[in-house]
Amino acid sequence: MRYILITLFMVVSACGGGGGSGNQTPPNNQSPSTPVVQDEDSQGFWRGTSSNGRPVDGIILDDGSYYVLYYTDSKRDFISGIVHGKSSSMSGDAFSSISATDYFIEEGVIYTGLSVTGTLKEKSTFSGSIKYSANETVNFTSAYVDAYEITPSLDQLAGSFAGNVAFAFGIEGAVLSIGPDGSLTGIGQSGCSLTGNVSTNTSGNIFDLDVTFGGYPCASANNTFQGIVYYEHDTGVAIGVVSNSSNTDGFLFAGTKQ
C-alpha cells in the first residue's frame, strides 16, 4: 500500500414531510429528502504495516494523489520501494484507485496498472489491499500521524542533504542542496546533476517538488519529473519522491541534513 484523497465536501439536505396522508405534497413543494453520504477526508500521513511484513508510510494529498513508501525492516533504515497513484473515487469511508504504479527499487522492477481498494476513517485508520495480479494481493493497515498538520517552512527545510538516490537502474550516493527560496541543486556519484524547485504545499506538512535532470550520465537525461518532499524536523531526514507524467519512471532520494 502507500502514499489517497478526495476534497471533503458536505451536502446538507432539507427535511421534507409533515403528518397526514402519504400523498400529501411536502411543504414548499420540496421533494422528500434522501440520505446524504459524507465522504471522509483522506489526506494526511499514515503509518502501518503490510501483510508481507513490511513497514509502510503513506502520504495522501488533497488532490487525491498518494505516495506509499515500504521498507525492508522495522527500523525503516532502507526504503525498498514506492507505490504512487491517485484516487479514482471516494464514497463515505470506501475508496478506490486504479492504475497505480509500484517502483520496486529493491529489485529494480516497476509494476504498473495496480488497483487499490480499502476503508478510511478520517484522521484515524486506513486499511485496504493492493492487487498486483489475479493471484497476488498485498493487504495493509495504518493509523493517522498528526505531524501532517504542522505548517511547512522553506526556512526550516533549507540546507544540504547527504544520502542516496534510488531508481530502476540502481542506487547511488548523492548530495542535494535546497535554498531558502526553494531552489534545488544536486549531484550524484555518477556525475549526474539536477536542478529544481521546492515549494510549500497548501494542504499539509509537505513540499511540492519539480526536478530536471542534466544530460549524460543521467538515466533520465534532460527530463523533468514532479513529486513531493517530506521533511522530518526531529531527525533532519528529507525524503523526496518524483515521477514522470506517465508514471512509468520514478526516483527516490533519502538524505540527512548536514
Explain this structure.
This protein has 258 residues and is mainly β. The chain has two domains: 44-148, Lipocalin (Beta Barrel), CATH 2.40.128; 150-257, Quinohemoprotein amine dehydrogenase alpha subunit, domain 2 (Lipocalin), CATH 2.40.128.120. It is built from one helix and 17 strands. The protein has one helix at residues 154-157, and strands spanning 44-50, 55-60, 65-71, 79-86, 89-91, 94-104, 109-120, 125-133, 136-145, 159-167, 170-178, 183-188, 193-200, 207-213, 224-232, 237-243, 250-257. The strands form two sheets. An eight-stranded antiparallel beta barrel has the order 1-2-3-4-6-7-8-9. An eight-stranded antiparallel beta barrel has the order 10-11-12-13-14-15-16-17. The longest helix has 4 residues, at 154-157. It is globular, with a radius of gyration of 21 Å. The model is unreliable at 1-26 (pLDDT under 50).
Gross morphology: globular
How many H/I helical runs? Answer: 1
Question: Major β-sheet, in short?
Answer: 8 strands, antiparallel, barrel
| N-to-C order of helices and strands | EEEEEEEEEHEEEEEEEE
> Looking at CATH, which topology of the largest domain would you report?
Lipocalin
Tell me the count of domains.
2
Q: What is the CA-based Rg, rounded?
A: 21 Å
CATH class of the largest domain: Mainly Beta
Average pLDDT value?
Answer: 85
Span between N and C termini?
31 Å
Instruction: Report strand %.
Output: over 45%
Q: Strand tally, please?
A: 17
Helix content: under 10%
Based on secondary structure, the structural category is: mainly beta
| Name given to the CATH architecture of the largest domain | Beta Barrel
